[in-house]
Amino acid sequence: MPTLSERDAAVLWHPYTQMQTAPLPIAIMRGEGSWLVAEDGTRYLDAISSWWVNLHGHAHPHIAARVSEQLRTLEHVLFAGFTHPAAVELAEQLLEILPANQARAFYSDNGSTAVEVALKMVLQYFHNQGQPERRTFICFNNSYHGDTFGAMAVSSRGAFTEPFWPLLFDVEFIDVPVPGREAEVLAQLDEVLQKPEVAGFIFEPLVLGTAGMVMYEPEVLSELLRRCHAAGVLCIADEVMTGFGRTGPLFASSLLTEQPDLMCFSKGLTGGTLAMGLTTCASPIYDAFLSDDKMRALFHGHSYTANPVACAAALASLELTRTDECTSQRQRIASAHAAFRTEIEAQPGIRAVRHRGTILAVEYDPGEGTSYFSRLRDAFYQLALDHHIVLRPLGNVVYLLPPYCTTDTELELLYAVLRQMRELVLDFVPAANLPHILHD
């Protein structure tokens, strides 16, 4: 009998994978807390929350019970002209804890669609206001907002999107205001804001995920938003990855003194249980669509918009996230990350260590530039698997973004592998480059 992995290879096509050269996928049969159990019984520690979605651990009984209950009550109903309790309750609870200016919630299916909805809201807002010429977005270099066409357009151009460049609308890119470059980036923004066609600014607040967990400070982001607002430009916070406690507070935007006009959520929204997207907006944006003219409505929707089962999972996850226990878990992980950063950041083979909340990123120095296609990536990935740990290195950047239930003992397993990766880097680096690394 073929294994599940072999059956998979005969019929499936996996994301971000060169199927001709990729090894067989690892077949996972069940999850238990921070662990995944494979077909052969091997247990793997999920250090990245299965692509940043899992908050409270796999197969969490509280979320499972709420999903089961919902399935026995109502599995789905169209959301045009109808509603249901879970959708209303989730929106009420989220708007209660989001920045105070957020007033309306629009459901979709995933992070990319949450971004698409926000982009369309901004563009049609100006269209409805009699300013259709305002259709340009400002984005960060090296940003990522999803894989649908609008989301690709407002993401940094790169190898993943190159085949589609001719079909993507033009945007204005500015650099990320990392520490030491704040004034330079503010000047870049001021120059772009001189253009009357600018409509929106979309950003990953405080942490750019796929860029290698690049981090910057709330103060400069608040100033960027202030300047956008002064120019009448709407601001979109893409909290798909940062939302629900990853950066410390429940939302990265909570640390800002100037608030975004729209916010996008997915990933941790349902605790990693079911696919769901959500876009929220301030009242003036919603109000611009109100009219006796039906053509001013937002014509966007999905078959599974506000799916009751997904809403039930999100409510259960949110209930867990708001407990004192979860807050303590996040603080414990953040403290452990901070201690490990202090230990490793000045050592040979380490270019930089970045940390915010439960996110830790180690940028190793292979004697060459930072790249998603670094020769170290596959070696790092295999080293982690050899130690039964699930990581997905971003080239020579290795990050930890664990479920909140991850214990101190489990964190130490992760740190031990990161230490071994440093030794691997020193073995990879040409001898001629070693003095440079040791000097740094």
Automatic annotation (TrEMBL):
GO molecular function: adenosylmethionine-8-amino-7-oxononanoate transaminase activity
Family annotation (InterPro entries): Aminotrans_3 (IPR005814), Aminotrans_3_PPA_site (IPR049704), BioA (IPR005815), PyrdxlP-dep_Trfase (IPR015424), PyrdxlP-dep_Trfase_major (IPR015421), PyrdxlP-dep_Trfase_small (IPR015422)
Enzyme Commission number, as recorded: 2.6.1.62
Keywords: Aminotransferase, Biotin biosynthesis, Cytoplasm, Pyridoxal phosphate, S-adenosyl-L-methionine, Transferase
Record Pfam families: Aminotran_3
Protein localization: Cytoplasm
Cofactor(s) named in the record: pyridoxal 5'-phosphate
Record PTM N6-(pyridoxal phosphate)lysine, positions in chain: 267
Domain of life according to the entry: Bacteria
Enzyme class (EC, first level): transferase
Record-marked site positions (Participates in the substrate recognition with KAPA and in a stacking interaction with the adenine ring of SAM): 16
Catalytic reaction equation(s): (8S)-8-amino-7-oxononanoate + S-adenosyl-L-methionine = S-adenosyl-4-methylsulfanyl-2-oxobutanoate + (7R,8S)-7,8-diammoniononanoate
Main location class: cytoplasm
PROSITE patterns tied to this protein: AA_TRANSFER_CLASS_3
Pathway involvement of the protein, from the record: Cofactor biosynthesis; biotin biosynthesis; 7,8-diaminononanoate from 8-amino-7-oxononanoate (SAM route): step 1/1
CDD domains attached to this UniProt entry: OAT_like (cd00610)
Subunit structure: Homodimer.
Database matches in HAMAP family: BioA
NCBIfam families: bioA, PRK05964.1
Job description of the protein: Catalyzes the transfer of the alpha-amino group from S-adenosyl-L-methionine (SAM) to 7-keto-8-aminopelargonic acid (KAPA) to form 7,8-diaminopelargonic acid (DAPA). It is the only aminotransferase known to utilize SAM as an amino donor.
Protein name: Adenosylmethionine-8-amino-7-oxononanoate aminotransferase
UniProt organism field: Hymenobacter terrestris
Gene name for this UniProt entry: bioA
